[in-house]
Amino acid sequence: MNQAIRNSWVAAIAMFALLFGAISYVQVIGAQDLSTNALNNRALLQDICNDRGSIIVGGQAIAESVPGDESCKFRRSYPGGALYAGITGYYSTNDAGSSGLERELNSELTGNSDQQFLDRMGQLFLGQQPKGASVELTIDPALQKLAYDLIPDGQRGSIVVQNPKTGAILAMVSKPSYDPNTIATSNSKAAAAAMEKLNSTPGINLNQNVSGPTGALLAPGSVFKLIDTAAALNSGKYNKDSVLPNPAEMSFSGTSYKLPNYRGGLCYTQEKATFAFALENSCNTPFASIAEDLGQKAISEQAEKFGFGQDFGDQLHLLSAKSQFPDNLGETELAQSAIGQLNVKATPLQISTMTSAIANGGVQMKPQLIKTMRSPDLRVLNEPKPEVLRTSTTPDIARQITEWMTGVVDEGIGQAAAVPGVQVAGKTGTAELGDGTNNSWFTGFAPANDPQVEVTIVMQGVDVATGAQLTSPSAKKIFEAVLNK
Predict the structure, then answer these.
(1) SS3 call for 213
(2) How does DSSP classify residue 234?
(3) Cβ-proximal residues to 349 (8 Å cutoff; 6+ apart), any chain
(4) 92, 113, 177, 222: which one is catalytic?
């Protein structure tokens, strides 16, 4: 009898060990291989129809899971709609896949990240419905709405608002936008029709990996002159008292092409200019002459220090494009590139981080979009802290450029960004597109002596007058909204 009991216990223990081992293998050791197996549709269906975690702004969900139908227990809903589409992206139960944070944070939102292993085990043994982590963003909902409304419907443009000291993104919008609910619908035909329409819409095209503030590569025009200025001061050949050549046009050997000075502002009134005057009036020829003097290597290296050709670090959690400064430039091409034309390309987020580095004493912080990440029981899984991305220039050079940027707003062509009682630092830019239209830019920060907010605005394909109306005055409204809180 005792032997029979012992045999039964041994068998029971062996079966328990086998069962526990199998579960451990499936949940831990073989989880990756099983989840990526092309024949495993179960994992795909489970993820698609699970209760994904919410994406939250200001305490309100801008993306959440809601009850679905018989085919899928849950479906994705986007209360934030077009206002947040460029950030949330979409998650579809059809063939459309996913984009934005929905794709980049998929393992966290589904509860499948390494940090959530204990949560998964607890849900498994308690027989609970799997649920992912919720993600709270750094976005300020009031600023997001204001920035979005400042881009007129039908106008292509982007606005980025950051805290330059921490890198936290307070608002990031672009138009045209779209309603992710049209893709997240359980109606596959409607979702396919929505995708087809969006993929044929200039400025959206969801077939592209990146677009909007993180992905639209645009000619930066005169905002690039801030990089020329930093390169000049860093070289030791120039200082705050330097006098720069400022001819009406610049000639080059071996070609009849002449680079014209900026026809707006007061550039034409002086044949020589200080840095302050050249920046206040966005004169072209002084900065082209700096590039000619220093050479391509110096300008290219300074651009790289500000982030051109580099990524944004690991705090953004969105796909992004690398901004570009071209190689192998001739004399004429270098002059054109020095004023942000030709093949120089930058994303709105790149210009924002460039300006934030100047505001932050030359130190560029990682653009940060995630404030906190919490498990279903509200336990904090991740609370990212501000991190340095790179050093772009010295504190002394950053202070000097800031001083000149305040002159752009106090006395130059950026006066429409001025805020009463606050010193604002800024730089405007107009990049000619060759068809009679321009990319119109403003980038700046306030207060200049203790920066709390950085704003970058670009409006694409506009005439000079329209660009002036939609950039600097809009920056003023955003500065006021932040500083008057």
Answers:
(1) helix
(2) H
(3) 160, 172, 213, 214, 312, 320, 367, 456
(4) 222
Q: Which of 244, 457, 472, 225 is nearest to 338 (CA)?
A: 225
Per the prediction, the chain carries an average pLDDT of 89
- Among 38-42, 165-169, 202-206, top mean pLDDT goes to 165-169
Summarize pLDDT for 332-389 with one digit per residue, the tens.
Answer: 999 999 999 999 999 999 999 999 999 999 999 999 999 999 988 888 999 999 999 9
Helix or strand run (H / E) with residue 370: strand 370-374
Is residue 300 part of the annotated active site? The answer reads: no
What SS3 class is residue 149? Answer: helix
Residue 215 to residues 207, 312, 321, 429, 473: CA-CA distances in angstroms?
13, 12, 5, 19, 25
Q: Who contacts 275 (Cβ-Cβ below 8 Å, separation ≥6)?
A: 229, 232, 238, 240, 242, 244, 286, 404
The residues, any chain, with a CB within 8 Å of residue 257's CB and separated by 6 or more, are 332
Give the pLDDT mean for 32-56. 61
Q: How far apart are CA 339 and CA 130, in angstroms?
A: 54
What contacts 9, CB < 8 A, 6 or more positions away? none
Please give the C-alpha separations between residue 356 and each of 64, 266, 401, in angstroms, as whole numbers.
Answer: 32, 28, 12
Q: What are phi and psi of 269, to 5 degrees?
A: -85, -10
In this predicted structure, the answer to whether residue 117 has a pLDDT above a threshold of 80 is no
pLDDT at 319 over 60: yes
Phi first, then psi: give them for residue 33, nearest 5 degrees: -65, -40
Alpha-carbon distance of 235 to 393, in angstroms, equals 11
Determine the length of the chain.
485
pLDDT at 46: 53
Distance (Å, whole) CA 422 – CA 446: 7
Main-chain phi, psi angles of 432, to 5 degrees: -75, 135
- Categorize the per-residue pLDDT at 25 as very low, low, confident or very high, splitting at 50, 70 and 90: low
**Dihedrals φ, ψ of 72, to 5°?**
-150, 125
Single-letter amino acid code for the residue at 476:
K
